[in-house]
Design goal:
α3 crosses α4 and α6 packs parallel to α8. The radius of gyration is 20 Å and the shape is globular. The longest helix is centred in the middle third of the chain and has 25 residues. With 297 residues, it is of the alpha/beta class. The chain has a seven-stranded mixed sheet, with helices on both faces. The protein has a four-stranded mixed sheet with strand order 9-6-11-12. The chain has a single domain, classed as Acetylglutamate kinase-like (Carbamate kinase), CATH 3.40.1160.10. The protein contains nine helices and 15 strands.
């Protein structure tokens, strides 16, 4: 058998493996949190865009929520505005909030939209302020200093949490075959803009839409055990045990907590996948092996 025939057979096998998943997920909504290395490596950016377009072409409804922390940090540095963080959240005063909106709603969002559209997709970019898509309130923190009689309120500025998602605008875009690309900036009842963690926005959007899947692209292979082996097919109890044992810690904790909230909110499954792998999204959805960790209720 020559190499051309062998290659063609491999392609046919891949398509055969993907077919049941294509049939199962046609018409379903997928919320994809796009971030990490997949947003900066040119080959990964291209493969991500083609994955999204293919999902749309076979009848799925992908919705993208993106981050942009490194890009925000770069512009703040060029403007000589110091970056400060509290419990992993960027302290966001009014000056920093202006930069956040410029970078997330402008530079990053429009680059993703252009990337998809240039490859033949139909993407539309928006922030949570457009159509009052993401309602938010100020996120508050209190000091846990036991020596203080009254807990100290810690103000980190225009950092918000999602209170409500108005899905009408998303539904309209999906009905007209557009791919929504959402920047995680929300609007409060007070008229203020809020910088919101993209994982939180993606999770809340997936809950509100009762999405089939929430997919979170990361810079790790997924959740690993103590020996560095990838874990998958996890339920809530198993995840909580892994947290208590210290297996899940650090930067993975917020993502896992977001995943647990999503599956409690009727999202069928959450996938924490390795965005450093080309076509990671398709591999996770359309193959038996996948490239990440699946969490279900």
């Amino acid at each position: 058998m020559n190499s051309e025939i062998s290659s063609a057979i491999n392609i046919a096998n891949v398509l055969t493996e993907a077919l049941p998943y294509i049939n199962r997920f046609a018409g379903k909504t997928f919320v994809i949190k796009y971030g990490g290395h997949a947003m900066v490596d040119e080959a990964l950016k291209t493969s991500f865009a083609s994955d999204i377009i293919l999902m749309k072409r076979v009848g799925m409804n992908p919705i993208i929520v993106h981050g942009g922390g490194p890009q925000i940090g770069d512009l703040l540095k060029r403007l000589n505005i110091p970056s400060k963080f509290f419990q992993g959240m960027r302290v966001t005063d009014s000056e920093t909030m202006d930069v956040v909106q410029m970078v997330l709603g402008g530079l990053v969002n429009k680059n993703i939209v252009s990337l998809i559209n240039n490859q033949g997709g139909l993407a539309v970019g928006l922030t949570g302020k457009d159509g009052k898509l993401i309602h938010a309130r100020k996120m508050t923190f209190t000091s846990d200093n036991s020596a203080m009689e009254v807990p100290e309120i810690i103000d980190i500025g225009h950092v918000g949490e999602v209170t409500h998602v108005n899905v009408a605008i998303i539904s309209t875009l999906i009905e007209h075959d557009f791919i929504p690309v959402i920047a995680p900036v929300g609007i409060g009842d007070d008229g203020c803009s809020y910088n919101i963690n993209a994982d939180l926005v993606a999770g809340k959007l997936a809950e509100t839409l009762k999405a089939e899947k929430l997919i979170m692209l990361t810079n790790t292979p997924g959740i690993l055990d103590k020996n560095g082996r990838r874990l998958t097919g996890l339920d809530e109890l198993t995840v909580k045990n892994l947290i208590n044992e210290g297996v899940i810690d650090g930067g993975m904790l917020p993502k896992v907590r977001c995943a647990l909230e999503a599956v409690k909110g009727d999202v069928k499954t959450v996938h924490i996948i390795d965005g450093r792998v080309e076509h990671a999204t398709l591999l996770e959805i359309f193959t038996d092996a996948g490239v990440g960790t699946l969490i279900r209720e």
